[in-house]
Write a structure and sequence with these properties.
By secondary structure, the chain is an alpha/beta fold. It is about 30% helix and about 20% strand. The protein has a single domain, classed as 3-Layer(aba) Sandwich (Rossmann fold). It has a 7-stranded parallel beta sheet with strand order 3-2-1-4-5-6-10, sandwiched between helices. Strands 7, 9, 11 and 13 form a 4-stranded mixed beta sheet that branches. Strands 8-12 form a two-stranded parallel ribbon.
């Protein structure tokens, strides 16, 4: 009897990033998506014991998390459950963290730079990382803005006009980005590697992208406002460690918007 090969198990696949990934996941690419109820792998992560995995799982990709201010501690609980599942099954775990753990850096940040989160969400993700630190089968992915799942393009899909901060030098905010299809490529490539992964990895397409260029590429009307004291001009991830493992194309506004559209962004505009 032929054994089913499921490929990776993805926890939190029903969230915004999970849905974007699913829209472009290769049709012949084996994968098992976790849901709370029903489906081939049902598990209410925070309410039910860790289940046994079916044979054929090659690794665990943990996207499950929350931005709800009242439930930010759940991020640590979800991460510990994923790490426990991976340990029981002797499988690698890729855990979705965030670039928010770096806070407000004034230069490109690498994994060796200190985490200095300055928002409740960033602190929650850093707490999550600390909770699983030292577990060699877990890699925390400090993921950049996922195009179409980020605040800028979510707002652009909801509004007819978007306002951007303008800094004294006349420029607007710049950010590290990755498109959903490229994120899926990175996740599949990392989970398939036989060699141990670093405990922390920055994940982005190399290069900073002007938010103004993203809105232009998305055909969204926008204008300037004077940046306040708390506005962040740039958040740049050094992804040399990632690109030493996997080839990842540089980010362009046109490329990431096209990727976002292919994953379902903007269909309701």
């Amino acid at each position: 009897m032929t054994q089913t090969i499921y490929g990776p198990l993805i926890l939190g696949g029903s969230g915004r990033v999970g849905r974007a990934l699913a829209a472009q996941w290769p049709k012949d690419g084996p994968v098992l998506w976790q849901t709370r109820q029903g489906g081939p792998f049902a598990w209410d992560i925070l309410a039910a014991p860790v289940p046994d995995l079916p044979h054929g799982i090659t690794g665990i990709i943990a996207l499950a998390g929350t931005t709800d201010p009242a439930r930010l501690a759940d991020n640590t609980a979800l991460a510990l459950a994923a790490a426990d599942l991976g340990a029981r099954a002797d499988l690698p775990v890729l855990l979705a963290s965030s670039q928010a753990v770096y806070g407000r850096p004034d230069a490109p940040v690498s994994e060796s730079d200190p985490a200095r989160p300055d928002t409740p969400y960033g602190r929650a993700k850093h707490d999550m990382e600390l909770a699983v630190a030292g577990q060699s089968h877990v890699t925390c992915l400090r993921i950049a803005n996922v195009a179409g799942c980020d605040g800028l393009l979510i707002n652009a899909a909801r509004q007819d006009f978007v306002t951007l901060d303008q800094f004294p030098d006349g420029t607007g905010p710049r950010r590290a980005y990755i498109g959903p299809a490229q994120l899926g490529h990175v996740l599949r490539a990392l989970i398939a590697r036989a060699e141990p992964l670093p405990q922390v990895l920055n994940v982005a397409q190399p290069g900073l992208v002007q938010m103004a260029d993203v809105l232009d590429a998305a055909d969204v009307q926008w204008g300037w406002k004077t940046a306040g004291a708390g506005a962040l001009p740039a958040l740049d991830l050094d992804c040399a460690a990632l690109t030493a493992l996997i080839r990842v194309p540089a980010a362009t506004a046109q490329g990431i918007v096209a990727d976002a559209r292919a994953s379902g962004w903007g269909l309701s505009r």
